[in-house]
Design a protein that fits this description.
Elements: H1 2-9, H2 11-35, H3 41-72, H4 74-102, H5 108-127, H6 143-173, H7 175-186, H8 191-230, H9 235-245, H10 252-267, H11 272-297, H12 305-319, H13 321-340, H14 345-351, H15 359-368, H16 372-382, H17 388-396
Helix pairs in contact: 2-3, 2-6, 2-8, 3-6, 3-9, 4-10, 8-9, 8-11, 8-13, 9-10, 10-11, 12-13, 13-14, 15-16
Length: 397
């Protein structure tokens, strides 16, 4: 309870630090790659961070320019949406009229005919009143006020970004020193186990982040290209947004499909473009999730599917949207710690993807529970990679 309270009330400090540490895991392989060319640590870190800033700046400029062009055409899209809404409304009224007529009731037109009478009476009563003169006086706005209005919305995210970059730079510069201090605090009495835990955590997190970054970048490129071929306005912006939203577990791709599908309905007088956008996401996401990801970094990150969902709910409740994006790597850290630290083993049992019981324990638990069906299912699964004699010797006896 105290830990959860500390995480909640300290989120303004902990979120930037956590983001910086995760960013350092992403950039660390790039720094190591540059150091192989006899480049010292400081220039390698600076070049890597500048390259990351360049990519982020390019993506931000692209999104901003395409969002501006999208906003300029918003009135035209609004007219198309209104026409479609009126068409759906007219279809619904026609169906209601036909159903009412079939059952012998009054037509909706009779109720609509009474509306002009009421409206005309209200208009007559309104016409007898004298209009009240209204004068709109605009306040004089100084350049400082205009600048404040523009800067205030981006000031908070800008501060967080600067803090994350500064902390990430220092983490990359002092990586070995921080590792040694962590070993001294948590496991100097057992250097072998602590070193193995740190190596395991570092390799898993780096592999996860880099693989996710590569997969989601390709996903965004394919989506952007597909939207461009379909004819959706600002396809590059939606491709970037699709790549970013796919970091959100399970629902990110569905969230990314909502805006382009709605925009397709606003651009196309019919519904063909919307259906094409939905079909694009319906094809690309399963191929990415069930073909590309397993080929790139295996079938599992070390977490059970239930733990991914539960951790996403927990971290979203605790830290909001940022917690949702960081839920999987944070939970992965807890599982790695549970595999190497005895007192935290319950994290591995509850959240990991490894079986909680050994085959022997699982067999006898099913026998004690008088559940022969599950025992038979377990035996069939184990006999796929071992002989019957080995099964009897290793499990039953």
């Amino acid at each position: 309870t105290l830990v959860i309270a500390a995480l909640y009330f300290g989120q303004e400090v902990l979120i930037p630090i956590t983001l910086a540490v995760m960013l350092s895991f992403v950039l660390s392989p790039v720094v190591n790659f540059l150091q192989r060319f006899r480049l010292s640590r400081a220039p390698a870190v600076i070049l890597t961070v500048l390259a990351a800033l360049g990519v982020l700046g390019l993506a931000g400029t692209l999104i901003g320019s395409q969002a501006a062009s999208l906003t300029a055409n918003a009135p035209q899209y609004a007219k198309t949406i209104e026409a479609k809404v009126e068409g759906v409304r007219g279809f619904a009224l026609t169906r209601m009229a036909s159903v009412t007529k079939a059952f012998g009731g009054s037509r909706p037109g009779n109720a609509q005919g009474a509306a002009p009478t009421l409206n005309s009476g209200a208009a007559t009563a309104t016409g007898q009143r004298r209009p009240i003169p209204v004068e709109v006086v605009q306040e004089s706005t100084s350049p400082f006020t205009i600048a404040k209005t523009i800067v205030e919305p981006i000031l908070g995210p800008l501060e967080t970004t600067i803090i994350v970059l500064i902390v990430a730079i220092f983490v990359l510069m002092q990586k070995e020193d921080l590792r040694d201090r962590f070993i001294r605090v948590f496991g100097s009495s057992d250097l072998h186990r602590t070193t193995r835990a740190l190596d395991d955590a570092g390799q898993r997190l780096s592999k996860y982040f880099l693989s996710q970054l590569a997969v989601n970048t390709c996903f965004g490129l394919v989506i952007g290209l597909g939207l461009w071929l379909i004819g959706v306005p600002s396809p590059a912006m939606w491709g970037v947004m699709a790549g970013l939203l796919r970091f959100v577990p399970y629902i990110g791709s569905f969230l990314a499909a909502v805006a382009p599908a709605a925009l397709g309905a606003a651009v196309d007088p019919g519904w063909g473009m919307t259906l094409e956008v939905v079909a694009l996401f319906a094809v690309v996401e399963p191929v990415t999730g069930y073909v590309v990801e397993p080929l790139l970094y295996g079938h599992s990150t070390g977490l059970s599917p239930v733990s991914v969902i539960v951790s996403a709910i927990f971290w979203t409740w605790l830290w909001g949207p940022i917690g949702l994006i960081m839920s999987t790597p944070l939970t992965l850290c807890l599982v790695v710690m549970g595999r190497h630290v005895k007192s935290l083993e319950f994290f591995d049992v509850l959240l990991g993807d490894r079986p909680a019981l050994t085959p022997v324990e699982s067999f006898y638990q099913r026998i004690l529970a008088n559940n022969p069906d599950e025992a038979l299912a377990q035996a069939e699964a184990l006999l796929t990679d071992r002989s019957l004699t080995d099964y009897y010797d290793g499990v039953v006896l």
